[in-house]
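Give me structure tokens for this 227-residue protein.
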Amino acid sequence: MALVCTTAAHAWGQVGHPPGSSPYREVLARQVFSAFGGYVMGEGGKVGVGPTDGPVVGGRYEFLFGGPVAIDLRLAVADLDRLVIDATRPPGERVKGTFTQSVLMADAGINLVLTGAKTWRGLAPFVGGALGMAFGGDVPQDSSTFEFNAHFLVAPQGGVRWHIGDRLLLRFEGRDVIWRLRYPDLYFEPPVVDPDGEPVLNPTTSSDTDWTHHLVLTVSLGYALRL
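Here you go.
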């Protein structure tokens, strides 16, 4: 019997990890303030006039509930390329150029942390999504009556937090920011200088709205509080 107990104890010791050597660590932080930077890679819609590519910077506040759920509030500014056209001109003469439009994005998100209230070797992967608004700045060069001003956005997202110390962490995130463009009536009318010419959009087959996707990749440096 003693031999059996000794063998069983030895076998049990091979399963799992002693507390000091476990790859899992409890996350003690409850609030994280971080600054981030990255790049936006988007589409301009079927006409190409929506905001597309450019750098983005911002800040984030994240609250960890002590389980698998975390919420975050995010504010970002991106300087995005925007194609400007003159809808009153014939097709070959419409493009005026590509200009920069500043876009402010504010959203709130909820994430499911796949390792729960712990990290695995300092890593805590997550998936989730956010809802918010995007506000476009002025583009003086655009006289086509197309505007990108205030737009609702939705953003499925995922990434990983890397806890590199008791207080500091890095966050790598990818999100698909989706918003809707609306095209003005002028896009469906023949060009003023050529009444027999083709409009920007076919009024019988084209919709006046368009959903566009924007891949946003960011890296954050965060500071954690245990409050």
